[in-house]
Amino acid sequence: MSHFSYKNGVLHVENVALNAVSQQFGSPTYVYSKAALVENFSAYAGACQQHSPATDSTLICYSVKSNSNLAVLQLLSRLGSGFDIVSGGELLRVIAAGGDTRKVIFSGVGKSREEMRLALSHDILCFNVESIPELHRLNEVALGMGKRAAISLRVNPNVDAKTHPYISTGLKENKFGVAYDEALACYRSASALSNIDVVGIDCHIGSQLLDDAPLLEALDKIIDLVNQLAAENINLHHLDIGGGIGITYDDEKPVAIDDYLSRLFTRVNAWRQAKYKGAPIKVMFEPGRSIVGNAGILLTEIQYLKHSEAKNFAIVDAAMNDLMRPAMYEAWHGVQTVAQRGGQAQIYDVVGPVCESGDWLARSRSLAIEAGDLLALMSAGAYGMTMSSNYNTRGRAAEVMVDGDQMHLVRQRENPADLFALESLLA
Ligand code: LLP
């Protein structure tokens, strides 16, 4: 996380000291580094350009659910990104951020008719269809609008992503996609529907993958299917391998994006050459965490230190409602003090004010701290703000984007009165 470093004993994001962020915007606050976002996106874009230079032969569709702040979407859109969405709400965010709807793909197992209509009216690139009933509903909705819906089927390649069971999605017991063995039959039904255009194939096997071997295994299986479909004259324009590459939270060593894409394109290009005489079937990606995860931190202030017989607690002003990942997955986030201070370190659990024992952000960390100090919860850019809630009627955190020595407030802190503004009293 080179964009997060100590200068004169104070943790900075790029050239902005985190205590300056808290002075100006308070805490808890999510703070993102624009340079880190650009660098992470460019790792994908650069590798695509290098290994598959033909125009329009690749597309990176950033997974909006990982961090959907409008400024993040705007920045990525300006860098040429498309978007992987999972709701009508995410589509409206992409539009509000100035994103190109013709670069939007719509994933998810439960798309409503209304969401389908919205997406069709904005001419999105493709629906990633996850079941036969969804396919029929989409055909019906498109017919009603006098439109055609471009689809890809999300195929479940049944490979083990070897990640946390809650974020593993490519095994046959998961709710996602259509079974590999049924995919051919599903494609036949899809291509017989009046208002459906079969354009692609898609898979996503899980998240926080450290090794690319399961992704390459999935790729081989998908390529096999595309060949079988071609033999039946169902010719696809794109292959979408999903997202899933992990990041370093503690001491994990995820595969480098460039190494992954270089291995992937070695296979894809050999296949393109053999089957398509080099014609570039488009390859698409849906990365989320590897673009935003290490580009953000959650800044929080210690309210109290509490020493009990069994444990020491640092009670901070951020909580599980701000960063759900520890409570939900026992996820590990680094904790750094914003101002380094001398003194004896002690072992602390970092916990929030929410009334649940599960409300912890980090456990058993050695910290030299005092009440009033600021802490940074590291690697919190992905699935941080987007999974936050208003539990305990806590307003959501502010979000700040740092660019060099500038800070931009990209989301105001929620005002408690806003939280019940849509509620009404009985007459
Ligand atoms: N495409 C699809 C269809 C997905 O379901 C996901 C993530 C992605 C792409 C992006 O995957 P990524 O590149 O970020 O791994 N809340 C969990 C992660 C859930 C991931 C859900 N799907 C966490 O905090 O770890």
TrEMBL record:
Biological process, per Gene Ontology: lysine biosynthetic process via diaminopimelate
Annotated positions binding pyridoxal 5'-phosphate: G244, E286, P287, G288, R289, Y383
Names of the cofactor(s): pyridoxal 5'-phosphate
Domain Orn/DAP/Arg decarboxylase 2 C-terminal: 30-381
Pathway where this protein functions: Amino-acid biosynthesis; L-lysine biosynthesis via DAP pathway; L-lysine from DL-2,6-diaminopimelate: step 1/1
Pfam families, per database record: Orn_Arg_deC_N, Orn_DAP_Arg_deC
Protein family per UniProt: Belongs to the Orn/Lys/Arg decarboxylase class-II family. LysA subfamily.
Subunit structure: Homodimer.
Protein name: Diaminopimelate decarboxylase
Annotated organism of origin: Collimonas arenae
Gene this chain is encoded by: lysA
